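TL;DR need structure tokens for one chain.
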Amino acid sequence: MNQQKDKGLHFSGKQGSFLLLMVLLTVALIVGCEKKTYERVETTWPDGSPQMSRNYKTEEMKEAVFETHFYDSGSKRVAGPLKNEKRDGKWEAWYEDGTLWSVGYFTEGVENGTKTVYFENGKKYYEGPIKNDQRTGTWKFWDEEGKLVKEVNYDR
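>> reply
TL;DR here they are.
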């Protein structure tokens, strides 16, 4: 029978422990030296509960990338991403009890896309397309039980 010898490196004892320690220290050094890329800044209501928070990109805090506003009770009121200090992307708003109130989409501070608004019971109130902050196309309106009550075309 022909046996092949393993020609790989093998470490044991002090040599193996030292190598493991060096690898762990190198990883810890790399992770510890990474730059902080996001910083959260909050303003508060007089009672100390959060009023608004912003997440800033870069340690110089030059660009806010996400913003959240709160009711004085502490529950979320509105939140969404920012780009160049303007709303950009999906923004959501809530009733004070935490129920979703609305969803809208923004591009560089201008509302574009489907806007949906809900009743406090969670059912849709109205929905339709927005272009450059203006209602366009067909909008649908429902009652609190979820029954479609009217449609309005804003392009006419």
